[in-house]
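Protocol step 4 of 6: structure prediction from sequence.
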Amino acid sequence: MKRKVEIFTAGCPVCNPVIDMVKDLACDSCEFTTYDLVKQGDDKTCVSKINEYGIQKLPAIVVDGKLLDCCKSDLITKEKLIKAGIGKL
């Protein structure tokens, strides 16, 4: 079963290294969707998802519908992403 990983970004120098780190950790069981709030698109899906997940800061990562704890208040680190299951089969 694929692990659904959603990345929320503003396309800024703070967000881009986190996106790269998540993608570097990825394995075949990770399916990515990236939502760029600057380039929202016409359907505004990213805005409704931000509200749904309670995202209050960027970058933010949601795995299988759950906002990672490190995205709520702490810094996002490689170790925390691995602990959340990114990169594991």
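Step 5 (inspection) to follow. The first strand starts at residue 3 and ends at 9.
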